[in-house]
Each structure stands twice: as C-alpha cells, then as structure tokens.
Write a structure and sequence with these properties.
Distance between the termini: 52 Å
Structural class: alpha/beta
Number of strands: 18
Radius of gyration: 27 Å
CATH class of the largest domain: Alpha Beta
CATH topology of the largest domain: Rossmann fold
Mean pLDDT: 77
CATH architecture of the largest domain: 3-Layer(aba) Sandwich
CATH superfamily of the largest domain: P-loop containing nucleotide triphosphate hydrolases
Low-confidence stretches: 92-97, 144-165, 342-361, 372-387, 422-427, 503-519
Strand content: 15-25%
Shape: elongated
Amino acid sequence: MAKVEEELLNTLEKLKDDGFKTFKWYLELDDVLEGFKGIPVAKLENAARRDTVDLMVQKHQDHGALQLTKKILEKIYRNDLVQSLQNFQPEPKAGGGRKKVLGRYMVILTRKYQKTTDGTDESGNETLLKAIYTEVYITEGKSKEDNAQHEVRQLETASSTKILHDTPIKCHDIFKVLPGQQEHIINIVLTSGVAGVGKTFSVQKFILDWAEGSENKDISLLIPLPFRELNVVKNEPHSLLTLIRRFYPTLKDVTEEMLDSEDFKVLFILDGLDESRLSLDFNNSEVVSDVTQKSSVSMLLTSLIKANLLPRALIWITSRPAAANQILDQKCADRITELVKSTQTQFDGGLFNWTEPEETADSGSMAASVITGLFLFFCLLQSASAELPITAEPGDNVTLPCKAPNNVNITAVEWIRPGLNRSDLDPDRYVYLKTDGHLNTADQDPSYVNRVQLKDDEMKNGDLSLILKNVTSNDEGTYECFYVEETGGKKNELIVYLIVKGEFVDVQQVETQRVDILD
C-alpha cells in the first residue's frame, strides 16, 4: 500500500498545466467539500505540484486531502483519475491516527495533573490530587465590589455576591446551561476568585477528569495554556497551531480542519489571567482569524477570546477579580462566574440551617456576623498563613516578608505590584527582579530604583524578604513575591499588603496571605 502523499503527487502529475491551474483555483475556494476552508491564494500562487500536495495534507490531513482531491477532479471532469483514487488503499500511519494521537496526549495530561503540591506542605512534596480535592462552590455572577475591595475583604463580604442562579455550578458543568435557564450558547466562561480559593485546583481537577475520560466526554480536545507559561513565549511569533505544538509536541498531527470542525469540540483553558505579562488589547481592530496565521502571542489570545479565531471553541479563563476587571473585556464572556468559599446564602440556606426569628433580629444579626467571622478565619487558615498587614510611616525603611521552602534551589526572585504598570507600551515593570544572581534594573519600575534590596542577598534558608527604603504614600498597596526553581517551575509564594500611615485605610481590607502554586 502506498502513502497518500505519493498517490496525490502521481495524480497531479497526470494533469496538464491548464488542468493543474484549474485544480489550484478550486483549492482556493471555501466549501468545495462542505466545511473545508480554502488554501490562501498567496500560498498556492507559485506552488508546484509537490508543494500543492504538502499544502493540502498540512491543512486537511491525509484523509481530507484525498477526499478534496477527488471532489475537485469530479468538477474538472477527470473521472478517470477519480476512479484511480477510489481504488487506492492508503497506508495506515504509525500510531493509528487521531484517536491514537489524542490517546497519548491524554496519558501525558493525566501524568502531569494527577499530582499537586499541598499548600500546607512546606517540603514541596506532591500529593495525589484526588486525595485532597474538595468540591468548590461556583456561582453565576460576581461580587458587586470585586474591583474595589482587597481580596480578603471580599471573603468577609461574600454576602454581597450577586448570584444570578440559586444552584451552585459544579466544576465539570461550567459550560452547561443550568436547569430552568433559557437555552443559550456558552462558549467563553470567566471564573474569578481570590488568591488561595482554589481556581487552579479546580482547573487541574477538570483537566484530570477529562483526560481520564470520567467527565466532559463530548470535548474532543482540551488544551491548557496557563498564562504563567505563555509569558515565557510572549516575544515569539506563532500561529495558533505552532503555539499548541510549542507546548504539546504530541499534538503535531492536529490540523486546522480538526480545530475548526463542527464535530470536533476544542476547549482552551487559560488559567491565571492575573499572572499575564501579555499586552492584551481588546480595542485593537487588528484580528487573527486563521490558525495558520503567524502573529504575536498577545494578538492570538485576544483574537481567540474575542471569537475572531475559532469562534466555535470553548474557552475557560480564570483570574483574580481585580485583574479580570482591569485586563479583560468581560463582554466577551458568555458566562461570568465566581469561585468562593461560601456565601451568606449558604449560611441561610442550609449550611448552618440558620433561621432568624423576628423578635431576635438584632441578636440574630450579631450571631450571623460571628458565624461569618469564624468562617472567614477558617478560610484564612485553610488558604493562607495569616499575619498582620505591614505598616510603615513615610520615610521609614520596611521589610516585606517572603520565605520559600528551605530545600529549594532558587534561580530567580520577583517582586511585583499587580496593576502597577499594566499597559501595552510598558507591560513588564517590576518592583524587584533578580535572575541567575544578577539584578535586573532595565525592567524595574523607576520609582523603586535604588530603593529596594533583598534582606539576604544570598537567599539563605529560602529568605526572599524585600527591604523597601524611604517609604512614601505611593508605595501603599499589594506586593506579590514569586520565585523560580532550578527546575523551571515558577511559584507565587506570598502576598503582602503595605499600609502607609497617614492615609485612611480600612484595616479589615488587608491581610498577609501565603499562597502556593495552587493559585
């Protein structure tokens, strides 16, 4: 049995020049075969017969190229060549085609996501995800004040969450219409939640369930693209196809036709929008609409989220609330959800079966507040190492604490302030950045030059604490500490809120939280 490429080349060589020119003209058209997009004129214009075969196979795979060739030959009345191709028996490719390729890919995802680092284990040892995972509470809607409040304050004011549907959404049902809702298309879902609440945990469980075949079996292909990994390739030109293959070489046989097929459902999971260092401009009129078109990674992601690229694709974006409001055009989302520890609705509706007699309204409110406070305390114990916020006066030198596990070899440490310089022209400005023993001042925000240094320049015992000199009122806000292990894994280790005395601040809005790789 011969290879498809050889048979197609033999067939095209039997066409005279005029016939070959007409053949290429049909290749430029959409829907010669229903659902098959044409090959761009620029690629076909000077393509010889061998080049034309390569373009067809690259775009439509072997089977699609064979079917398309037969259809065009029918249109140019070369039924003799059609009959020859009808009798052709293609040689099966090693690996067994689409099912085999995706089977290997699912095994790779299972091995990657079946374990996680438990946030309570400072040694960095991994644990089976299923052994520690607990179901999260996802509501449709978002907190009314999620852009203005500090994240820990949001936990306390969870009762203000505007819930659009009473029933909590299970993680694996994130794209499904809920009972009682009017049928509508849900292709793009945004899920926000505070640090440590379990966004990345939920994503990991969703991926693992799909890879093991226990949930969402209607999804043909699931592609995780965490923003922390996309940051690494932000300056590389890519098409969507090459970007996928950059992270998942196993998917090298996935084609444009597969991604855009109606019977091939694709899901992209974009986890950690708040960690993005891409220049996502949703007001830019430039679009990418072809998965083979090369562009910047930022433009690819923007076009994908705006549904200009693969409009049928499913997309799940996770983020902390502030970043979701600052970066993302939320009109792009078909469903906006929030992942929370709990809400007052849960307190009132059954978690504690709390009912408040009218005659004890005041005492009942007080009791409910106590319960909410206790619950908040529980959340902080579960997802963070709670400390007092750091306070300083103008002119002081202050230490922002951060500590990595003792047994980790650290190659880089990064301190940032979320939203400090999030713009297209200047997206990457750090409070402090040290890589491979060298301080990076080129990417440092000018307001921190010569004002910050590590408490221990050698980072002994994992001490990544930062000294900030000559504090001003402009320094007040949230600081995040990251470190990179020698193996290449980046972790968000601590969030610190700095209060500068002399300005009004609601102390209840701030806490110091320990956050591991879970978020």
